[in-house]
Design a protein that fits this description.
This protein has 337 residues and is an alpha+beta fold. Helices cover 22% and strands 35% of the residues. The strands form seven sheets. Strands 6, 7, 8 and 9 form a four-stranded mixed β-sheet that branches. The chain has a four-stranded antiparallel β-sheet with strand order 17-16-19-20. Strands 2-5-3 form a three-stranded mixed β-sheet, covered by helices on one side.
């Protein structure tokens, strides 16, 4: 007996299984696609929203920290700006401050890389000390390359302008430059033969006298002596010239101060003394005290022309006295040494 095959049945069987396989694969692909799309929309809709902070004008480091807090990422661009003071600061940002965006958004930051120096700036009417600081900034922004040098010694003239004001410059403003350039300045000394009315200092407590001296800007010199009779301690007991005397502006007013009635065992009442070189006009001088605790306090500030600089003090042993002029330290000493 021979075996007979029903070809039509076999074909139906294969067709049915093939159809089932294709449908299964299609269903699996559709299922995976649905899952992928769902995950995508869940991720997009679930992203946390945040507000873009305002970082224009801030230093780059500070701006990056603010963006990090908001879970935003920077895209940096460098650009030259109009002034060297902008170097390292944010000039522009996109999106604008206050814009609501999704976390993870990139924020475009335009950062200043300083100024291209190809012309001489107009320094007329500016204070010479401020100009020195600006030139130091340009020096730093140019990678340590000196572009401008100020010719020393400076030339001074009496004028109605505030002492320290630049009256003339060479090269003139807007002069083209191609390399290091020497600047020549003429500086105001202030008015000639200026006089001042000597204030009433005798009878004032030391702290009040120092405050008045700082405000009036007179030249001065202190001495200390022991109290006598009913005199109060730490008080100005005499002055030469006397109050209301009309004297040349740089007249030194001699002041005598009494010692304190009593001082703590760990305190010293003394006289700080340092000779400051004579200046063509008064410069900002500051005396600070660095206490043993680490706290730093301001004792006295004044625009001082130079000479013997004396300031009485009552401070704990071990305090460090620091004398500075134009924010540059000149001298320091330790109380009790």
């Amino acid at each position: 007996m021979g075996i007979r095959f029903d070809l039509s049945s076999i074909e139906d069987y294969v067709a049915n299984h093939l159809r089932f396989f294709i449908l299964s694969v299609a269903g699996l692909v559709l299922f995976v696609g649905i899952i992928a799309v769902s995950v995508f929309f869940i991720a997009v809709r679930g992203a946390e929203q945040t507000m873009v902070p305002d970082v224009v004008g801030k230093e780059l480091t500070e701006a990056l920290l603010e963006l990090q807090v908001k879970e935003l990422y920077p895209r940096l661009q460098l650009r030259y700006s109009q002034t060297s003071r902008d170097r390292g600061h944010i000039l522009e940002q996109e999106p604008r401050p206050g814009t609501i965006v999704k976390a993870g958004r990139r924020v475009r930051l335009v950062v200043s890389q300083g100024v291209i120096v190809n012309k001489v700036e107009n320094f007329l009417g500016r204070n010479i000390d401020e100009v020195r600081m600006d030139l130091q900034t340009i020096y730093a922004s140019s990678g340590g390359l000196s572009i401008f040098f100020i010719k020393e010694p400076l030339m001074y003239e009496f004028s109605a302008e505030t002492p320290g004001t630049i009256l003339a410059q060479k090269p003139e403003p807007e002069t083209d430059i191609s390399g290091p350039t020497t600047l020549e300045f003429v500086i105001s000394r202030g008015r000639e033969n200026t006089t001042v009315a000597v204030p009433q200092l005798s009878g004032l407590e030391l702290s009040k006298a120092l405050e008045l001296i700082s405000n009036t800007g007179i030249n001065f010199e202190f001495t200390i002596r022991e109290r006598s009779g009913s005199e109060r301690g730490e008080t100005v007991v005499s002055q030469i010239p006397p109050a209301n005397t009309i004297a040349p502006v740089n007249t030194v007013v001699q002041l005598t101060v009494t010692s304190p009635e009593q001082a703590a065992d760990d305190e010293i009442f003394g006289l700080f003394r340092y000779t400051i070189p004579a200046n063509p006009y008064p410069l900002a001088v500051r005396l600070d005290a660095l206490l043993p605790s680490g706290e730093r306090i301001r004792l006295f500030t004044i625009n001082y022309p130079g000479g013997e600089f004396t300031v009485p003090y009552k401070l704990p042993v071990g305090t460090v006295l620091i004398l500075s002029m134009l924010n540059r330290e000149l001298y320091r000493e330790t109380v009790g040494n």
